[in-house]
Amino acid sequence: MSDGRATINLAKPECPYDMTTLGAPFHVSPEMYQYHRKGHLSYLSYDIYAFGMLLWVLLEGRGTSRPKVYKDMKTIQSMQAAVENGILPCKDDEEFQIPSVSDACWSLMTRCWEDRASMTMDIIITDLKAISETVDRTR
């Protein structure tokens, strides 16, 4: 980009609302539901939100689960309603019992979802580096 910011375009597929192997896509941000295909360009908040969900999937570790809060969201419409109403994964979720997920990782994920309009990839990279350094020190 001309302003020096890079987008990662995680949420820029041709058919972002297609069903996935895990069911209705939970990586689509409220803004993407609102603006996609309505003459708007892609917003950075799409990618920030999607990155938070990707981080959840990576930390979950199996790649075969979705956050329990979305378990009953079988259709695109039900997932859209959940996302637009601010329903997000919970750290205390029974499905999310991964002892290695630090408070810092959880904080980064939730900030990607809740503060996506003010987050940048620079902030995410800085946080990931700090998390990595903390992990390296504990080894």
Question: Which characteristics define this entry?
Answer:
139 residues, 5 helices, globular
Write up this protein.
The chain is an all-alpha fold and 139 residues long. It has 5 helices and no strands. Helix 2 (44-60) runs antiparallel to helix 4 and helix 4 (103-114) packs antiparallel against helix 5. The longest helix has 18 residues, at 121-138. Mean pLDDT is 79; it is low at 1-6.
Class inferred from helices and paired strands: mainly alpha
Head-to-tail CA distance between termini: 38 Å
Percentage of β-strand residues? under 5%
What is the helix/strand order? Answer: HHHHH
Q: Can you give the mean pLDDT?
A: 79
SS element count, helices:
5
**How helical, in percent, are the residues?**
40-55%
pLDDT < 50 runs, ≥5 residues = 1-6
Give me the count of strands. 0
Record the SSE blueprint.
Blueprint: H1 30-35, H2 44-60, H3 76-84, H4 103-114, H5 121-138
Helix pairs in contact: 2-4, 4-5
Q: Would you summarize the structure shown here?
A:
With 139 residues, this protein is an all-alpha fold.
